[in-house]
């Protein structure tokens, strides 16, 4: 009985460890844009953004100004004095399944013609997102897309595609996650299930 209890405990530990390893993995660095310090109710414009490569026209990081961020205090606008972009190379596997999620909002008091943001996955467009910003503040909406890794590295890019007039849509809480267990954790889970099955068989009366 003691040996059975020890075996069951070990199998349960293996399954718990495998479940932990199989938890969603966040691939995007600084997806909420909080790593860059901006004064309260202020904004900055520049050519750098932690974790991201910034397009030629720079980036605006806004700290709850011209609308509030969805999460934290910072969000970005991709139309500075002209349309720009941000991109990041993510560590992926060829054929791996991922969920790309982000929050988009039109800029307040502007039309959809100026607010467009295009999302590209490894250079392939995954859609253009735009809306009217009819009143004061941001109107955040979450979008989720299923994407597939192209290899050990896959590029994620957001770029402004509305009127290049210094008024653009807002972007916040960018995320790319994978819930698929790594091969090692899958083997660990199989081992735990095998031990549990063996223990159950041993416990049954002859």
UniProtKB/TrEMBL annotation:
<dbReference type="Pfam" id="PF07589">
    <property type="entry name" value="PEP-CTERM"/>
</dbReference>
<protein>
    <recommendedName>
        <fullName>Ice-binding protein C-terminal domain-containing protein</fullName>
    </recommendedName>
</protein>
<feature type="domain" description="Ice-binding protein C-terminal">
    <location>
        <begin position="179"/>
        <end position="203"/>
    </location>
</feature>
<dbReference type="InterPro" id="IPR013424">
    <property type="entry name" value="Ice-binding_C"/>
</dbReference>
<feature type="signal peptide">
    <location>
        <begin position="1"/>
        <end position="22"/>
    </location>
</feature>
<keyword id="KW-0732">Signal</keyword>
């Amino acid at each position: 009985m003691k040996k059975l209890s020890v075996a069951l405990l070990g199998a349960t530990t293996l399954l718990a460890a495998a479940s932990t390893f199989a938890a969603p993995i966040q691939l995007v660095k600084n997806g909420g844009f909080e790593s860059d310090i901006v004064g309260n109710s202020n904004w900055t414009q520049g050519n750098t953004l932690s974790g991201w490569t910034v397009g030629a026209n720079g980036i605006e990081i806004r700290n709850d100004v011209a609308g509030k961020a969805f999460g934290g205090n910072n969000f970005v606008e991709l139309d500075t004095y002209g349309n720009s972009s941000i991109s990041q190379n993510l560590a992926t596997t060829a054929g791996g399944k991922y969920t790309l999620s982000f929050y988009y909002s039109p800029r307040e008091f502007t039309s959809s013609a100026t607010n467009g943001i295009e999302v590209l996955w490894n250079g392939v467009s995954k859609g253009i997102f735009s809306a009217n910003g009819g009143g004061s503040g941001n109107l955040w909406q979450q979008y989720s897309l299923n994407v597939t890794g192209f290899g050990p590295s896959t590029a994620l890019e957001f770029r402004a595609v509305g009127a290049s007039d210094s008024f653009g849509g807002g972007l916040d809480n960018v995320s790319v996650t994978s819930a698929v267990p790594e091969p090692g954790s899958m083997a660990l889970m199989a081992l735990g299930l095998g031990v549990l099955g063996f223990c159950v068989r041993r416990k049954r009366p002859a």
